[in-house]
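ABC transporter domain-containing protein (Ciceribacter selenitireducens ATCC BAA-1503), 334 aa
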Amino acid sequence: MTTTASPLLQVQGLRTVFDTRAGRVFAVDGVDVTVNPGECLGVVGESGSGKSVTFSSVMGLVRAPGRIESGSIRFEGRDLRALSPPDMRKIRGRDMAMTMQDALTALNPALTVGEQILEVLFAHDETLPEGRMARRRAARAKAVEMLELVGIASAGDRLQYYPHEFSGGMRQRIMIAIALACRPKLLIADEPTTALDVTIQAQVLELIADIRVRLGMSVVLITHDLGVVSEYCDRVMVMYAGQVVEEGPTASVIQNPQHPYTRGLLQSIPRLSLRGQKIKPIEGQVPDLIDLPPQCRFYSRCSERLDACMNRIDMRELGELRRARCIRLPEVKA
Ligand SMILES: Nc1ncnc2c1ncn2[C@@H]1O[C@H](COP(=O)(O)OP(=O)(O)OP(=O)(O)O)[C@@H](O)[C@H]1O
């Protein structure tokens, strides 16, 4: 993917916190994200690393007790944090859309899937004709088209069905259809396959990959699975305890991981474990995000730690569009 085109999404220094009874949770702490037009960015990391909160922040969907404390979020150059709630609602749905991990709770159980797709189209689709009946007819035709696009047969009839009448895989497809109703430029798919069995997982991922090419959109794929990233993503961003710890073109990161955490992730999955090495899980726990010491966040779990890792560790540019947050790495001066 070229780096010369202006980014579709550019996030800099994002900090999102949750004020809880136990204290302030630094869920996202100084995260930078770039998504270029047409590319697929994989976001990987263990549970609680801040993947969902980062992209809920981008979508303007963080709710109290959470809030964005600082950072800038630009979409096609527009500063999203400066937009009014109605202007942000317009962008959400029309220009960028996010599908949630659990389709059953994300969909409205009281509305048919047709009503839910129509709701999005009526709110955002400026190409619908004037006049109540003509508008409804055109929107219905588009809803059928979207269900067909995500591979749902007898789409016209299925518009009358409620979410619970579909299987888990079908519900994910419906959520994708709703997200795509207005042909957004960016689709953020948060763990689209978590609740699904392996065959259906592959179908949903293929579907997203296929639609991405057909609609020419960018995709952010949030996942625990580096295997999925290696198959579908141009670039990967590895998150740990609210920070990005490594980033770069997928093949380069997977063949030559620079951060000990990325190496740990690779060794903990069967398909991609480095040649000749045994599969082994990363020992220890993600640190408590409330009381974070200034040191490297991976310190307590890192087998390569040095005394100097007790200091604050910044991201280092490594050349070839790669970056990692580890003191052991030589910095490349541009
Ligand atoms: N509503 C909330 N209240 C308090 N803390 C929260 C809330 N939502 C998220 N967090 C904090 O933010 C951290 C990051 O959450 P996030 O959902 O972004 O992780 P994730 O990497 O997407 O994990 P998963 O893969 O399990 O979805 C959590 O560990 C939690 O500490």
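Residues 18, 20, 25, 27, 45, 47-53, 65-66, 224, 289 surround adenosine-5'-triphosphate (CB under 6 Å). The radius of gyration is 21 Å. ok done for today
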